[in-house]
Amino acid sequence: MPANTATQSHTLRAVIELRQRILSGELAGGTRLLEVAMAEELEISRTPVREAMSRLAEEGLLERSKGGGFLVRSSKPRAISIMRTTPKRG
Q1: What phi, psi does 12 have (nearest 5°)?
Q2: What angle is formed at CA 31 by the lines to CA 60 and CA 45, rounded to 5 degrees?
Q3: Measured between alpha carbons, how far is residue 22 from residues 2, 6, 17, 76 in Å?
Q4: pLDDT of residue 7 exceeding 90
Q5: Fewest CB within 10 A of the end CB: N or C in the chain?
Q6: DSSP string across 26-56
Q7: How many CA atoms lie within 13 A of 20 on its CB side?
């Protein structure tokens, strides 16, 4: 697998994993996420973790910490709250 494709795959995996942990409450509001520790936990390099955290910050699930790293936002964006509470139809 080419390096760029592998990085994209790891980034997507990190986005999905972190989003799931945040929305499930496993990573509570105010939790500080550090790139190195999260990369070790997910067993991937720091670059995909950094990209995933930036994406989740854009989505409003994380915010950049003044001291470095990211914090899980205490209040989730309204659209995500609605997605979690709206029953699936089908």
Answers
A1: -60, -45
A2: 80
A3: 30, 24, 9, 9
A4: no
A5: C
A6: SS-TT-EE-HHHHHHHHTS-HHHHHHHHHHH
A7: 6
Q: Give the confidence band of 2 by pLDDT, cuts at 50, 70, 90.
A: low
Strands 32-33 and 70-72: antiparallel
- Given this structure, which CATH class describes domain 3-85? mainly alpha
- For residue 11 the two structure tokens come to 């980034």
Round to whole Å and give the CA distance between 39 and 48. Answer: 8
Give 8-57 pLDDT, tens digit per residue.
Answer: 899 999 999 999 999 999 999 999 999 999 999 999 999 999 999 999 99
Q: Closest Cα to residue 50, out of 63, 69, 67?
A: 69
Domain boundaries, the chain: 3-85
